[in-house]
Amino acid sequence: MRILIACLLFIASSASAQTLPSWNEGAAKSAITGFVKAVTTKGSKEFVRPADRIAVFDNDGTLWAEQPLYFQFIFMLEQVKASGAPVPDMHDQKAVLGAMGKATSGMTVAEYDRKIRDWLAKSRHPKFKRPYTDLTYQPMKELLAYLRANGFKTFIVSGGSVEFMRPWAEKAYGIPPEQVIGSQQEVKFETKDGKPVLTRGPSFAFIDDGPGKPVGIYRHIGKRPIAAFGNSDGDLQMLQVTAAGEGRRFALLVHHDDAEREFAYDRQSHIGKLDKAWDEAKAKGWIVVSMKSDWKKVFSFEK
Amino acid sequence: MRILIACLLFIASSASAQTLPSWNEGAAKSAITGFVKAVTTKGSKEFVRPADRIAVFDNDGTLWAEQPLYFQFIFMLEQVKASGAPVPDMHDQKAVLGAMGKATSGMTVAEYDRKIRDWLAKSRHPKFKRPYTDLTYQPMKELLAYLRANGFKTFIVSGGSVEFMRPWAEKAYGIPPEQVIGSQQEVKFETKDGKPVLTRGPSFAFIDDGPGKPVGIYRHIGKRPIAAFGNSDGDLQMLQVTAAGEGRRFALLVHHDDAEREFAYDRQSHIGKLDKAWDEAKAKGWIVVSMKSDWKKVFSFEK
Q1: Which of B3, B13, B105, B196 is most solvent-facing, going by the fewest CB within 10 Å?
Q2: Which ipTM did the prediction report?
């Protein structure tokens, strides 16, 4: 029995040392582990039952990189070019979505899925010369796993299209397709050659960005999250709704301040602009993570 | 060790006898257990990994009763009356949805949720004189639990609104709010008295019925189910898409043929019409359950 207890104590202490290993000790890591301890400790007045431990994560700039342009936009640009249509201004999100919608309209969802998988397999990021799916953040992947190990259910809530994330989110993040919430292009049921298929329409049915994110969460999850993670003004309303719930809540922003290991941008950026949400984080005491000082590594491929 | 093995064998044999206890032995029950065995037996060529064991269930008429009128319509009718607007023809689904949308427009989602919970708590079914949430089918609840015990993830895919099902689906069916797919009224993010809220708009953003069901499944789950359960023509496309997938698939219709214990209706009914889907079930060998002969009991409150 003594040996058993010794073993259990050893396992417990090494598990503690291994919590979030790519995070430096500091205010951000302490805030995360303190929050998780508070909501998972039975008998604590801040205890939250597992079914309500809902955590939502933005994707672009929060779980993987988004510079020099959202990766989905780079993919979209190629689809628009291939269709022969004029190329829109890539910083005009509405124009890009419009052009992209038309370029892939009429495809079945299976055909579109194949295009995305092929593109992800062959394409390389201009700076890192690696597949885009290598550009997920190691500390955030540890955070996702840590939350799940503590009974949380983790969801992606992204401005990107569901189709672009679902093929790889399970392998990269441990998040299955049914926990990926995103923008939705119109899709229609049809019968083709006697078989039932779903075909893409030209326009978007739902844009899951900014004020759309709490709507997407309401529609899909139907519960208010207790923790939300983002990096830009597009995540502001999701963080506001999460933080406004009763009981202990957690809101966190990733600040891109590491030009060497990744990119540095915030208030002035076209992509992933962090301005209003940053001010609100300061005013409300939300956690702002410095990629430079809070993270031991950004990507898993770093030495 | 011998005692341990004896105990395990005893537990296994009594578990087998207790599988789906409210189902009579027969073709329907055998088809269900045969399907589950095939997709869960490791090494079998029909094996499906747990992550892909997605089962979708219609709600009205499949998991709970829907006569003399969808229970949500009875609730809606009261909301329309309370708003002072003219009462629409309750068999005209479009008119009902339009009138209902307007009657609850401008409410926050929290206010609407309170209205539904209050109504469900106080209202009684005209025939059974019981709360509507008592009118869930005992054999189907056993089926849901049996599938989950075999690694399935169970979803509701209903023409009803998500708001009307989520407050009680977890307790009644073991299905959490994030696995309830349904019709969606428009919802808008707003700031009221300095607090972020979601407010209901007057129209529907999505109708999850008929050809809408495979679209709802695609949007929400992003995977093709391997098993689908319905009872009416509104479930036809959901069953078609499920059955058209590769590998072993399962499609089942509940036939309401028990006027004594519940209701008897099919091809001529305004509510839950079963006509085209029945013909297709016969043509394709889908399972058609007779409530009268396949179910030992319909409701759990029966003796």
Answers
A1: B3
A2: 0.93
